[in-house]
Amino acid sequence: MTSFAVIGHIARTDGTFSLNDLPGTGGRMDVLCRCVNSSLFLSHDLRSDTDCYLVLCGEPSPPKTVRFLGSDVRSLSPDERSAGALIKKALSIPVGSEFRDATSGISVRKGGLARLMSEHAFAVLDEKGPDVRQAETLPEAFLLSDHLNFTTEEESLLAACPRYSVGPVCLHANHAITLVHNELDRRRCKWN
Amino acid sequence: MTSFAVIGHIARTDGTFSLNDLPGTGGRMDVLCRCVNSSLFLSHDLRSDTDCYLVLCGEPSPPKTVRFLGSDVRSLSPDERSAGALIKKALSIPVGSEFRDATSGISVRKGGLARLMSEHAFAVLDEKGPDVRQAETLPEAFLLSDHLNFTTEEESLLAACPRYSVGPVCLHANHAITLVHNELDRRRCKWN
């Protein structure tokens, strides 16, 4: 099982954003939609062994966490608007502190990074970390930030996490997810 | 200079598609928009050494080729809708057989794969090819298909092209572009 978690620092936490303006009204929800795509899609299939967590920290009721379970998701298409519509639906239902299903495989709860870190042993994708290709073993859970850097508070939560870099240039989060998946695929299939 | 070209087998060749339904009315234009993103975007920058060609083969006037020059593009954002809007604008102007600028860095002409192949020495990204990581040298131009396989006619045009695989599982075209960029970045920066 592989898990990716992405922090959306200004991502809207209710369902009032417009699918016609995911970057603006959604608080760069487009970034998170692309991360869902990179986490879950194979060419004509979904990665049933992968989950994707979106930690939403924007207004009006942060933080919330939306979870996509690759094994259970049914109605997701690869385009950003499709993921956006499912996130919008998840954010439109009343939630408490435990995950509540919005649609098949997609659920939402109150709470953010601290709670998620108590449940997963995350490695951080960080351009200053050692090369992911050189790592002897790789973890099962990876944490990334959206278009903004981790905050000071987040960095202190993450201080003890291992860090890996996917390459020599600084990339979008969804591109980094694709590169981690490729490294894991290659190791699983003995391509290295 | 690196070039990526993607064939959109049913991608609309006029500007009448809806930005609210890129997959449906655009003929899977969403696939091509994601390929533009993967070809051109770094974290907070554009890849000025990369071009992206979209070969559109859908109705009403196929084929047309839309070219994004990474060095000259100015108004592109990473979300699918942004690329879709620029493609729509390019497809709304009258064109002949030479590239005509629609907006900065984005141009369009009549003509498809055969013409493009006379201008670039493409390698084909193909899951049956040898591993891109093992190649002694890599070409400068890569050709991919959208969600559909190459047609018989396309395959005969491509018969003599070298082929490379990016990994052991079959991926979306935009994910494959990200993996090729990473391999090229690593070689350029001596990370291998």
What can you tell me about this protein's structure?
Chain A is α/β, with parallel strands linked by helices. In chain A, 26% of the residues lie in helices and 23% in strands. An 8-stranded mixed β-sheet of chain A has the order 6-7-5-4-1-9-8-10. The longest helix of chain A has 16 residues, at 173-188. The A-B interface holds A 19-20, 22-23, 30-31, 34, 37-38, 41-44, 77-81, 131, 147, 166-172, 175, 178-179, 181-182, 185-186, 188-189, 191 and B 19-20, 22-23, 30-31, 34, 37-38, 41-44, 77-81, 131, 147, 166-172, 175, 178-179, 181-182, 185-186, 188-189, 191.
Largest inter-chain contact set: A-B, 37 and 37 residues
Secondary structure category of chain A: alpha/beta
What is the approximate shape of chain A? Answer: globular
> What is the overall pLDDT average of chain A?
97
Runs of chain A in which pLDDT lies below 50 for 5 or more consecutive residues are: none
For the secondary structure, the number of strands of chain A is 10
Describe the biggest sheet of chain A?
A: 8 strands, mixed
H/E series of chain A: EHEEEEHEEHEEHEH
N- to C-terminal separation of chain A? 20 Å
Strand content of chain A: 15-25%
Helix content of chain A: 25-40%
Helical segment tally of chain A?
5
Please identify the oligomeric state.
homodimer
Strand order of the largest sheet of chain A: 6-7-5-4-1-9-8-10
Radius of gyration of chain A: 16 Å
What's this entry about, in short?
2 copies of one chain form a homodimer. Chain A has 192 residues and is α/β, with parallel strands linked by helices. Helix content of chain A is 26%, strand content 23%.
